Batch of 4 targets.
Target 1
Amino acid sequence: MHPLPVADTMVHRCSLSSHCGKRREWILNMSVQNKIREFLLRKSNVTYYWKLRNNAKNSKFKLRRYYNIFLLNKYHTRFNAMIPLSAQISDMPYFPHGLNGILVSTDAKIGKDCVIFHQVTIGSNRLADSNFGAPNIGDNVYIGAGAKIIGNVCIGDNVRIGANCVVVKDISDNSTVVLQSPRIIEHSEDRDNAFHA
């Protein structure tokens, strides 16, 4: 077999190196995609989310900080949640159902050992003529699924807030907040409960 001329050898090497460079770039992109996919599949790993959040808040390296913020935003989009870095949270709350639908105001304050169920809103009130501000939640507070805590309210320590309650007033320590029992309407005839699209 005759060796390639020197010029042909150089062209062959250049094409190989550019091909290898593209392959290397493709492999790098695939590894980043796999990491993001693996990250998004960690549905129940709230501890990992909290680690990302702490890294995003406390990292001295801008690139690492932005990378963690990028992953946090992916997490927020995946679970329709928002817990901003500016919210003052003393300790990682316990999320029995993950972060599904949990929204926290940028100015909210949350104490230690809190339990927050899914679809909870801890929101600010931005209307000047009403209870303007964000909630301040004490320690060891239990917030049931779907509860809404809105405005400049102070929730004391050891408070229980039942499912779907709307809280717009201060709650003192060791209190329980529940909804009124639902009204029951009885009907004498059978009813058609089929859904018609």
Target 2
Amino acid sequence: MVDTNNPERQFIVTKNKGETKIEQVGENTNFKEDSVLKSAFGLNLYKELLPEKIIIVEGSGDRYFLNHCLALYNFRNFAIKSAGGASKIPTFAGLLSNEHLQSYVILDSDKEGKDIKKKIIETYKQFYSDKNLMTLKEILNTLPDNSTIEDLYPIEFIKNNLKIELGEDLEIDDKSAVIIQLKNLDEKLKNDKQKLESLKTKLSNAFTKEFHNLEKLKSCERLSGFLDNLILKL
């Protein structure tokens, strides 16, 4: 049996290429990490171990970015979970609904995000509504249509880092979705999903390094407005 009141009594046993590894759960074990929970306790015990609020986002880059921002805001009683892609969010949302876990879902504001939101509300209408299932633009209505996390970055930051990564100056603005603009301006990014995802990861890493304290973060007008609105909804 699993003693959820004394997690330090548990051991995580994993096997990789014939090698068995045994690790005791200790005070430094991060129970907010999906892999730790799955390995140590199983999915059905999430509600015993997770913080009060669970935020579901589309990808790991979204999770990394929002974790960084909300930590600087000292908003910590939450866990952000990546669904591993927009198409997987309905399954993830359904699982949390079945477990009666308080969760919030944040989606991109593109057609896929809107369709997924509609699907989840129709399927799990007793658990999800506009109050806990939101697109980015519904959190901050000044964002452009089809907005993604990248539209929360300052436009000059994006331009500077695009020049570093792509070696060219791209004429982009904050009036329309950044990712759509990039696809229209660069055929390689349009046709190579892996290259685009790599660029998005590099932008996220560069942002967390440059905007590493609350003062710098709040200098990003669009982002700080988004975070203020998000926290009010949680």
Target 3
Amino acid sequence: MIVLEEVESNFNTADDLTIELRGINLSIDYGEAIAIIGKSNSEKTAILRCVSCLDKPKNGSIQLDNFNFSEFDQEQISQIKQNISFIDSNKTLLETKSAFENIALPLILKKIPLDEISRRINIVSKELKLIDKLPLKPQQLSKTSRTLVCIARAIITSPKLIVCDDITQGLDLKNSLLIAKTLQNVKINAKIAIILATNDLELIKVTCDKVFVIDKSNIVEKSNTEQFILNPTSYLGKEFIKAKSRLELPTSIRKQLEPEASDGYSENTLVIRCCFYQKANAEIVISKLIDKLDLKINILSAHQELINSCKLNIMLLELTGTKNRIIEATIQLNQNELFTEALGYVE
């Protein structure tokens, strides 16, 4: 297990900004993945640098298997680093070396015999479908293949922890999902802990067990992934989910959204995101609301997603009625475990 307790640190960015971390607490088990999300990339990076032994915290402790390596000297930290792999947002590779040579590099540094290196790379490359990419130089690789080579290099030494900084940056949805499923398989099959700094919701849905939201140097929300997507509690978490939900709306409706209802109308229309797991009886609840509150409810879209083996139903609805009845409807939906998020009003 990796545990951060009351970690405080300063991180100086390339722009000479000083990023502070205050009282950071998080934990992760082997075979588990967590996401760290937030507005500031620098705050997320500061946490990753501490966990990866690149920066030493000013206060607090970072423990790997009950060893507090924030108290270790440089030689001891070098030993700890051998259990940690880091993938940066640029997917840095040696441009003059082939994919095979890039993957082999950490094994070469450990003086592993060449035949054993070849054996390990052959196994990992088959798992990640990289066999035909091994002779190629980085500039000959697609963004997705480059990312997969970085993952292969990260897991080739059988680390206990992989730390990833915006690993799906620059990838389209299809290839982001490919990377997400690859990391999910690595997590499960190799029992490796994975920490992801990301704002990619699809990656979080597929790969992560927990979500930590950082804002203004503090962790402001901790939740399992299912609960975070269903009902985030922090302002930043709510805004994150709301922004992603708006993208699912038809463009014609998205362009009309207003934060407040227009004055002078007897009825208003509120667009909401409604999420619930299978145990909530949505059809009965919605039917009762229509009868009781005299509302018009229009289903804009509905789909089901698998979040860590749990089926999550997501609906985008238009509620039309008086403002008070719309508010009452959202209260009753939440009380019946159909969690809602207001996306905006339309005329």
Target 4
Amino acid sequence: MKIRQGFVSNSSSSSFVLYGYCFDNKDYTIEEILKEIGYNYDEETEEWYDMFDELLDSGFYISDNGETGAPRGKIILGKILGEIEDSGYFENIGIIDNLNDIKGEINEKFKLFLEKVNLNDSEPVLIIGNRMS
């Protein structure tokens, strides 16, 4: 029988590149942002998790803690440009020759919230992170 010594983990992670915004989370929660962009949150059923998955499936991402890729005290949101999983599998959206198109997608998706926090005229940035999956 083999015995493993040292750190053993059942969790996996993925690294990602996001084009979007990073801002302080002292005034907003992810739930509030999701409500602002048109999702309804049900506190009893915690249905916002399903909506978060829907957002992710459409290529967008939002995070407010280190386990999901945000720096301490920050919220990140935007469009995922690429992702590498523990298995080495790389997924991306292809060759990007115009970030303005992606900025337009981000601004359309998060328009109401970006206006509320006065980020609608700000330039998105590249955010590189790692998240538990």
